[in-house]
Amino acid sequence: METANGACSAPPTATNGSSEDSGGFKLKFCTVCASNQNRSMEAHLRLSEANYPVISFGTGSLVRLPGPSITQPNVYPFNKVSYDTIYKELDGKDRRLYTANGLLNMLGRNRQVKWGPERWQDWQIGIPRTEQVKDRGHAGTEGGVVDIVFTCEERCWDAVIDDLLNRGGPLNRPVHVINIDIKDNHEEALIGGRGILDLADSLNQAAKEERDIIGTATFDMASAAGRTSFDERVPEIIGEWQERWPNLPATWTLAWF
C-alpha cells in the first residue's frame, strides 16, 4: 500500500441514504482489497458503524505492509496472524517509522474491527461463520453469504470474479460484485469508505422497496427469480452514485455464489 497522501478531494456529503440505523431489512456486504488492511477495513468499519452486516477479505497471496524500504516489506500469512500481533511487532521494530507512515494507526483501527486479515480465496461460502462473533458487523453474516461484494481495485475485482467462476456457483445465488477504484493510502481509504457507505445506503433503500413489493419471504430467499427487480435496478443506482463520486471509478457485474 502507498503511504503518500492522495490528491483526490472528497465530494460533499451525499443526500440519498442514511448512515443511521433505521431498523428493518439490511443487505449483507463484503469488502475486499489486496491485504485486508487498509481500504477494505475502512469500508468494513464504515458499514458496521451504519449497522450493516459486513465481512471483509484480501485477495493477495500474503499480507504485505510497507517496511523500512521498498525492498523490505513486512509480510504475514492470512488467517493466522491477528492485527494485534502485527501492531505489537511493528511497534517493537520501529515505533517512530510506523507511527509516521500511519501503519500503527491503521492497525489500531483494524484490531477494533475484527481479529485478523482473512483471504477471499479461503472463504467457505455458505458455511456458517461461527468463529467471528466478536467481529464488527458480524450479526447477519452468520450464514456465510452476502448480497454485495465491494472490491477496491481492479485486480481484486478480477480475482473475486475468477474465483467465483472457478467455484461454479453451487448455491445458485446471485451476488453483485462492484469495484470502486481507491488508491491504497490512508487518506483515499477514508474517502473511499464514505463513498462505499453512500452506495450501500442507495442499494439498501432500493432493496427494501423491492422487498416490500415482492414480499418478504420471496425476496429473502435470495434466488435469481426473487431478486430480479432489484438486480435490474443496480446499474442505474451505480450510475447515479457515480455522478456524486466522479473520482471513484466503478465497475459492476452480477455473479453467482
Our estimate of the beta-strand percent is: 5-15%
Question: What oligomeric state is this?
Answer: single chain
Helix-and-strand structural type: alpha/beta
Overall helicity: 40-55%
Largest sheet: 5 strands, mixed
Main-sheet strand order equals: 2-1-5-6-7
How far is the first residue's CA from the last residue's CA?
29 Å
Order of helices and strands: EHEEEHHEHEHHHE
Mean pLDDT: 92
- Give the overall silhouette: globular
Low-confidence stretches: 2-21
The total beta strand count reads 7
Number of helices: 7
Q: Roughly how many Å is the radius of gyration?
A: 18 Å
Polypeptide structure, described:
This protein has 257 residues and is α/β, with parallel strands linked by helices. Helix content is 41%, strand content 13%. The strands form 2 sheets. The chain has a 5-stranded mixed beta sheet, sandwiched between helices. Helix 2 runs antiparallel to helix 3. The longest helix has 29 residues.
